[in-house]
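User: structure tokens for this one?
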Amino acid sequence: MKKLDPDKLPVHLAIIMDGNGRWAQQRMLKRVIGHQRGAETVNMVVEQAWQLGIKYLTLFAFSSENWSRPAIEVRALMSLLKKYIRQETARMMRKNIRYNVIGNRSDLPDDVNQTLDDAIAQTAGNTGMLLTLALSYGGRQELSMAAARLARDVMAGTLTPEQITVDTFGTYLDTGGLPDPDFLIRTSGEMRISNFLLWQLAYTELYFTETNWPDFTINELHKALADFQSRERRFGKTSDQLTRGSHH
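Assistant:
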């Protein structure tokens, strides 16, 4: 494994965990077994991110488009999610990890929301890594809901159109208060962002791997992070400007 520079890790790592179903189908297994195996990868990645000192980890667990999957698969995913949260909350407490959820929670089953609320409340005082699960989440939906909230505030007179800046707008998003992701990993070979964090990914470094999520190992994670560390993040500046800037 390549030695990682602890000073050059992403502050906020986001992951599109893709390929559970594909992994299962290649092995003639039910798709839900792929999701179960995927949950083991989640454990490993949470553990690793925590050990590396990454402050924010955001996982795309269930998209608003996933509701159109077969009902049996959706039910299995929901019960897996509930089980995962229940099992992991004690570990989150030990590791000082705080839970956060983004997405349209009103679409989630009541029992799942109850489990999430309990976990969020229980870990609310934790000050270590913030683990955000994107559930029933879609980027365009998030943006249109933020626009609606803005419009309500303008109508109520608490905000003028002139006060709407990039920064104000950011506070109306589900991720208000979180820094944007520095690094996005997507597994299983798809080269797109699939309606994930559309506003937040504006300057994010993107990394795509062919590996399906259940096969994504510690080695793979370290390889991705080493790739991140080899990139120069310029934010529209030139290399010269960056090197000059660091000498002041």
